[in-house]
């Protein structure tokens, strides 16, 4: 009886070790495939949720996988990071072992958050205008705009709107120092940030202001990972 107990304990330990070794290998391979597929500048961090891992690996289907990328650039716009969750990922273990380059890695659904830094927003803003902060669906900006050769101090609240291929920042409340009247002052303050060809085929669903800049939420379905 004692030998049986010892054997069972050793078996559990061995299976636990195999489980962790296997999950590390699959995470590494999925990260490599995503990096190549979406031309990332660095290898993303991949974490497969759920224990034990081997039961998911045998089935070739993973309920939830989290991914985190470092900084990257898309369409000239610098993105600080992307945090995403993949649901219903198909990644047959046999295919990964035999020839990962031919495996059909695919996620049923993906949700993610992209962070666009304030530095990037300042670079896209009209000359002389800087982002001061934000609150929910608005950004606060201030600076000086040049009108008819004169530099005029200005502050404004910009409403955040999603547009095809990007984010539009539309003046909602513009205040000019000294009560100077400037016709069509909005055109001197508003601007657009292009957001296209995001990794994991993410499409913008919501944008909000955060201390770091703009948090862009996105989603996608039937996403290839190889």
Topology of this protein?
Blueprint: H1 2-37, E1 45-48, H2 53-59, E2 61-69, E3 72-74, E4 77-90, H3 93-99, E5 106-117, H4 118-124, E6 129-135, E7 138-147, E8 150-163, E9 166-176, E10 191-194, E11 203-210, E12 213-224
Q: Could you walk me through the main structural features you see in this protein, from its secondary elements to its overall organization?
A:
The protein is an alpha+beta fold and 226 residues long. The chain has 2 domains: 2-114 and 217-224, no CATH class; 118-210, no CATH class. The protein has helices spanning 2-37, 53-59, 93-99, 118-124, and strands at 45-48, 61-69, 72-74, 77-90, 106-117, 129-135, 138-147, 150-163, 166-176, 191-194, 203-210, 213-224. Strands 1, 2, 3, 4, 5, 11 and 12 form a 7-stranded antiparallel β-sheet that branches.
Helix/strand order: HEHEEEHEHEEEEEEE
Distance between the termini: 50 Å
Q: Catalogue the unreliable spans.
A: 3-8, 10-17
Mass-distribution shape: elongated
How many DSSP-defined strands?
Answer: 12
The major β-sheet equals:
7 strands, antiparallel
User: What class, by secondary structure content?
Assistant: alpha+beta
Put simply, the count of helices is: 4
Number of structurally distinct domains:
2
The helix content, as a percent range, equals 25-40%
Q: What Rg, in angstroms, do the CA atoms define?
A: 24 Å
Q: What portion of residues belong to β-strands? A: over 45%
Write down the overall mean pLDDT. Answer: 79
């Amino acid at each position: 009886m004692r030998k049986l107990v010892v054997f069972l304990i050793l078996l559990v330990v061995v299976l636990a070790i195999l489980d962790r070794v296997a999950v590390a290998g699959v995470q590494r391979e999925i990260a490599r495939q995503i990096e190549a597929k979406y031309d990332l500048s660095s290898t993303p961090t991949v974490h497969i949720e759920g224990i034990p891992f081997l039961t998911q690996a045998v089935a070739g289907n993973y309920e939830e996988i989290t991914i985190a990328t470092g900084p990257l650039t898309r369409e000239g716009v610098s993105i600080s990071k992307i945090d995403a969750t993949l649901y219903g990922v198909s990644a047959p273990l046999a295919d990964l072992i035999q020839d990962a380059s031919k495996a059909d890695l695919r996620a049923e659904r993906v949700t993610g958050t992209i962070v666009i830094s304030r530095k990037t927003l300042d670079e896209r803003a009209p000359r002389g205008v800087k982002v001061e902060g934000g609150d929910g669906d608005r950004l606060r900006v201030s600076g000086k705009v040049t009108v008819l050769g004169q530099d005029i101090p200005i502050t404004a609240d910009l409403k955040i709107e999603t547009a095809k291929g990007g984010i539009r920042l539309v003046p909602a409340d513009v205040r000019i120092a000294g009560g100077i009247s400037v016709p069509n002052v909005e055109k001197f303050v508003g601007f657009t940030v292009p957001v296209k060809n995001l990794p994991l085929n993410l499409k913008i669903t919501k944008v909000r202001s955060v201390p770091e800049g703009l948090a862009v939420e996105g989603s996608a379905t039937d996403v290839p990972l190889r």
